[in-house]
Design a protein that fits this description.
This protein is about 30% helix and about 25% strand. It has about 230 residues and is an alpha/beta fold. The chain has a single domain, classed as Class I glutamine amidotransferase (GATase) domain (Rossmann fold), CATH 3.40.50.880. The strands form two sheets. A nine-stranded mixed beta sheet has the order 2-1-3-4-11-10-9-6-7. A two-stranded antiparallel ribbon has the order 5-8.
Length: about 230
Amino acid sequence: MKFLTVIQHTSADYLGHMEDHFEGRKIGFTYHRPFTESGKVPQFSEIADGFILLGGGPWGAAGARDVPSLAAEIKLTRACFMQGLPIIGVGLGAQILCLATGGSVEPAPLVFTCDMARRVDENALNGFMPEQYPNPVYMRDTPVPPDFAKILAEDTQGRAAAFQIGDNVLGFTGHPGFKRGMAEDLIMEFEEGPENTSEILKKLGTLTTQIEDALVPMMTGIIQLTNLMGK
């Protein structure tokens, strides 16, 4: 049985619908919460078969409001990358992934959007990425993948929505398994919130089925690329 180490940056942002897909494949996971009083960034020796960095709500990585554990997470992510471990970065996690692998992060205000991402590589996620899929983004700042990264999908502004680094490292600006309740909890968890939240929450609610349907093939590709069901 493979086991994943997952870093949360807020109480509200977790694996969401992705949990069911991992559990259905008998892939275990444990959450680490550095933002809590007793929480901390795990040591490299604590990482098992894969590493996931989740989103951070209003926390970013470009200098305006950096997540407090940023330096330690970049160091850990770089170590995982250098050792060839599979890594998945989502939202803020994708920013940290870029900083750890030679990319960068551009300053941007906190946004909450739910537009469609468009696949730009027919072989994205081993051919399992849908041509279009909902891309719910709740994030400050914007990840810029390193030059050697493969762009898998773009958002409506032509920026990378999903990218791949090497054989088994993936970044997503939006959360593939996002739930409306996660957005509601993020809005309540922090004093700072994005604009037009009620409008986007309503839109997110109408896309629930599309998010769940798109995640089915995407998780197949993610599992294959990360070899989380291999020997």
